[in-house]
Design goal:
It is a single chain. By secondary structure, this protein is mainly β. It has 2 domains: 108 residues, no CATH class; 130 residues, no CATH class. It is 9% helix and 43% strand. The chain has a 6-stranded antiparallel β-sheet, with no helix packed on it. Strands 7-6-5-4-12 form a 5-stranded antiparallel β-sheet. The longest helix is centred in the N-terminal third of the chain and has 25 residues. The protein is globular and about 65 Å long.
Length: 327
């Protein structure tokens, strides 16, 4: 009896060690996909939703719902708190499931806004605007203004107003980012989180691709089809059309490619509609996130091409971020 129990004990311990080893080999998954859904006539979505998909648990959860759009979304650098505006209202919310948004204050309504931020030097919120002096296309100078809130964020006043000349290709760029009286507290903007999916980040790994023979071919530096290999399975990857213009852009259709089997298949959720975007893909948790063109993000298994998660056209802003804390 003792020997039988010991055999069961060691069998269970071996199985537990094996499973633990596999989990360790797979590596921790410390990221989720943050994205937004917006309502349209006839849809089941009644409010604007900020949602989070957990690739480890395969769960899609509502983080926050609001009557209006989530604009200018950002996190503090520790991902403890998120900030956003909706209409003319400025909010903060703990990056934690179940958290409720807190109204910071009302923003002034400005034309040609350059956004809002917190200025540590004054311990106040600030908003900026910049407009061309004369025609935007031929302007040689721009009129810039900075508004600052009081401590209670109940009123705003102009703290700086001046014309700024154009300088060596900087015409129309905000000029006062490094000035103490208009310096922005460090944050992670939604655009910052999306940067890792930029096609620019993948050009060094992209190879010319022949869709007819499903092989790598041709010369770099030209418009046309490209193949980006998966980091975990280099003989599999995504093919796309590349074009060099003012920006380097890509276009649907996006194809999942198996170079060994010489097969290619349409990544269906992304569709085949014509359009160009600067976003390609980003990789975490052994998955590929394709933000898509005009919404329709999807998560792809890079070894099989299986779509793990996707959303419809009324979605936007899909990025990898650290998971919200749990209550």
């Amino acid at each position: 009896m003792i020997q039988r129990n010991l055999r069961w004990f060691f069998a269970v311990m071996f199985l537990a060690a094996l499973l633990a080893g596999r989990a360790l080999a797979a590596g921790p998954c410390d990221r989720v996909v943050s994205y937004f859904l917006y309502p349209y006539q006839g849809s089941s979505v009644r409010q604007h939703e900020w949602r989070v998909f957990d690739p480890l648990k395969r769960t899609d959860r509502l983080f926050l719902a609001m009557p209006g759009f989530f604009n200018d979304v950002r996190w503090d650098t520790t991902y403890t708190t998120a900030f956003f505006s909706s209409g003319d209202s400025l909010y903060r919310v703990e990056w934690k499931f179940g958290a409720k948004p807190e109204l910071i204050g009302r923003l002034p309504r400005l034309q040609d806004s350059q956004g809002w931020w917190f200025n540590r030097d004054s311990s106040c919120w600030q908003v900026a605007a910049m407009s061309a002096v004369g025609s935007r296309d031929t302007a040689s100078s721009w009129w810039c203004r900075v508004w600052q809130s009081n401590k209670e964020i109940t009123s705003w006043r102009v703290v700086r107003s001046d014309s700024v000349p154009c300088e060596d290709g900087d015409c129309g760029d905000w000029p006062w980012s490094q000035e103490p009286w208009a310096r922005r507290a460090p944050v992670v903007m939604l655009e910052d989180a999306a940067q890792e999916a930029s096609v620019d980040q993948w050009l060094d790994r992209a190879s010319p691709f022949d869709t007819a023979t499903v092989t790598l071919a041709g010369r770099k530096g030209e418009d046309g089809w490209r193949f980006v290999p998966s980091q975990t399975s280099p003989r599999h990857g995504v093919a796309f059309r590349l074009m060099y213009s003012n920006d380097i852009v890509v276009s649907p259709p996006f194809l999942f490619v198996d170079l060994d089997r010489k097969t290619k298949s349409l990544i269906v959720p992304l569709g085949q509609e014509e359009g160009w975007t600067t976003s390609l893909l980003s990789a975490h948790c052994d998955l590929l996130l394709l933000p898509g063109w005009d919404g329709k993000p999807c998560l792809l298994d890079p070894t099989t091409g299986r779509v793990v998660f996707s959303q419809s056209w009324n979605s936007q802003g899909a990025v990898w971020v650290p998971s919200p804390r749990h209550p």
